[in-house]
Design brief:
The protein is of the alpha/beta class and 564 residues long. It has three domains: 237 residues, P-loop containing nucleotide triphosphate hydrolases (Rossmann fold, 3-Layer(aba) Sandwich); 82 residues, no CATH class; 232 residues, Rossmann fold. 34% of the residues lie in helices and 21% in strands. A six-stranded mixed sheet has the order 6-7-8-3-9-10, sandwiched between helices. Strands 16-17-18-13-19-20 form a six-stranded mixed sheet, with helices on both faces. β14 and β15 form a beta hairpin.
Length: 564
């Protein structure tokens, strides 16, 4: 039985000539788990929002959307509200009330259900999700993972038939993201709810989906099972191959050299079996030299303590950190652990009550009249929308050029150069708020780079960005490092950190508990590690990227896989 029918759907935003969606025809069966993916700006979020009438973007629409057998526009208000649930990337924007219990009850109260029914449903949902321990807490006190679980529970308490999720793990740490995905999969299997999920982080979601739909420039280019989709994308050398699960990427880089080709693995377990069946471990480690870091400390934090309120516990506890000039340091850790707080202290936006912060061997309090930020330090916040103040991306970039003192004759050249570097040239005429989350992230990075900073602080710079764009940003940051620019990055993106960082640090209990090169840092971790490491650690010691694994495999082919 089909729960959703999309017929010849096209959509164009106001005053835009190009269609965001082009002649899409798609049927979704009841109970399916569908992964909707594609490069940043391909139209997947636009399509997802159009499936929820209340969130459908304003513009010119052609074609039909049927929920069940009813036209979307003809759905009664109760069905439209309760039967189709939508989870946003940012739970902050979805939570309405100040208490957990009230958030769970709010939707049911809006539908006018009897209090006895509301209490029963809320109690059941709280027990199912393990919310009972924080049932009476303020929503503002919850961690990112808890907020996303609460958003999911507050939708499911209304017993929807279709669940739409727009990058729900984008702001979650690896453990919280894994737990969330497991919960959604369990709901799909145990309750039969239909799931359509938009996601860039494909490592865990790709293998468990019933169906993978890939979009490109507003059209559907692939619609098949995960294994078949991986095969199609690989055969086309599609840009999406960079975001496929690590087992698939390792296989793609090795398959041509194998004589016993048993098919493409999808999961970590299948990847481990693939390596065991085809490769030895005579050479079981990569010789990696530690990066030669500059002896000059450009950021120094000593005995720093910070709390938001006088009576609240410390977020930073005798925090110590030193960053060398021209290095890329990535800070990882759980949601709500204090990573962003540490970044804001470095940027001078928050003032610690104890300790010393030095930038370029000068204490923060000695910087006057914004001298800390003039061609010196720049911060890209977690929410890129906060940096936009104009009606178009181009005007925003021009505005920052003027503010930094650039001559008017040089502004166009500077804007064009940074737009080319960050891949946003085609977005310059758009309003920043009309961009996808990933496009906003790249535009915000471009604006920051126009300040010509010597130190760049990044808070989740790859959030909402597709794999090819991540690679582009990684290349940009690596090039900036070669120019002597220092980069400190807070991230949940383990693969990205492993590929571009000189050092990685784990934030826990108000301090940095460990800090080392990626090969050492990730090699012994069970959860804060890469999928490539989990796939290969049973035979190789320090392989943390797909390229590391492939390099060792080339040196360890089994005899029956060696070409004559």
């Amino acid at each position: 039985m089909e729960i959703l029918q999309i017929k010849n759907l096209s959509f164009r935003y106001p005053e835009m000539q190009e269609y965001a969606l082009k002649d899409i025809t798609l049927n979704i069966k009841s109970g399916e788990f569908v992964l909707l993916c594609g490069e940043t700006g391909c139209g997947k979020t636009t399509l997802l929002r159009m499936l929820k009438r209340e969130l459908s973007p304003y513009g010119i629409k052609e074609g039909n959307i049927l929920f069940g057998d009813v036209e979307q526009d003809e759905l009664d208000s109760v069905s439209a509200t309760s039967d189709i649930g939508f989870i946003f990337q940012n739970p902050e924007g979805q939570i309405i009330t100040d208490k957990v219990w009230h958030e769970l009850a709010f939707g049911l109260e809006s539908l006018g259900l009897p209090s006895q029914v509301i209490r029963r449903r809320v109690g059941e949902m709280s027990s199912y999700f393990g919310i009972s321990d924080w049932f009476h807490e303020k929503t503002s006190s919850l961690s990112g993972g808890q907020k996303q679980i609460l958003s999911l529970a507050s939708i499911l308490v209304m017993q929807p038939k279709l669940l739409l999720l727009d990058e729900p793990t984008g702001q979650l740490d690896p453990i919280a993201a894994s737990d969330f995905i497991t919960t959604v999969q369990k709901l799909n299997k145990e309750t039969g709810i239909t799931v359509i999920m938009v996601e860039h982080r494909l490592e865990e979601i790709f293998p468990i989906a019933d169906r993978v739909i890939v979009m490109d420039k507003g059209s559907i280019t692939v619609d098949s099972s995960p294994r078949e989709a991986a095969k199609i994308l690989s055969s086309r050398n599609h840009p999406m191959i960079y975001g496929l699960p690590s087992a698939v990427r390792i296989y793609n880089m090795l398959s041509e050299s194998l004589t016993n080709n048993m098919g493409c693995p999808l999961t970590v377990r299948e990847g481990r079996n693939f390596l065991s069946d085809n490769f030895t471990n005579e050479i079981n480690a990569i010789k990696i030299e530690k990066p030669l870091l500059n002896s000059q400390k450009i950021i120094e934090m000593t005995d720093v303590c910070f709390r938001y309120e006088r009576q609240s516990p410390d977020i930073l506890k005798s925090f110590e950190l030193s960053v060398c000039k021209g290095e890329i340091l990535s800070i990882l850790g759980a949601n709500g652990s204090g990573k962003t707080t540490a970044l804001n202290v470095i940027a001078g936006l928050l003032k610690p009550y104890r300790g010393t912060v030095k930038i370029n061997n000068t204490k923060l309090k000695e910087y006057r009249n914004n001298s800390l930020y003039k061609n010196n330090l720049a911060l890209l916040p977690q929410n890129p929308q906060t940096v936009f103040v104009k009606d178009t991306v181009c005007e925003d970039l021009e505005e920052i050029c003027l503010a930094s003192g650039l001559k008017k004759d040089d502004i166009k050249e500077a804007v064009d150069a940074v737009a080319e570097k960050t891949g946003i040239a085609h977005l310059l005429s758009k309003h920043p708020y009309d961009l996808s989350g990933g496009e906003q992230q790249k535009a915000a990075l471009a604006k920051m780079l126009l300040l010509n900073p010597k130190i760049i602080l990044l808070d989740e710079p790859t959030k909402g960005i597709d794999a090819r764009s991540k690679k582009s940003i990684g290349d940009t940051l690596t090039a900036l490092k070669k120019d002597g620019i220092t980069i400190v990055m807070v991230t949940h993106d383990i693969e990205f950190a492993a590929n571009i960082s000189d050092r990685c640090a784990l934030f826990f209990d108000g301090e940095i508990t460990s800090c080392d090169t990626p090969s050492v840092f990730f090699a012994d971790n069970s959860f804060y590690t890469t999928a490539a490491n989990r796939i290969s650690r049973h035979i190789y010691k320090n392989a943390v990227t797909c390229e590391d694994v492939v390099s060792l495999c080339h040196k360890n082919k089994k005899q029956d896989n060696r070409h004559d």
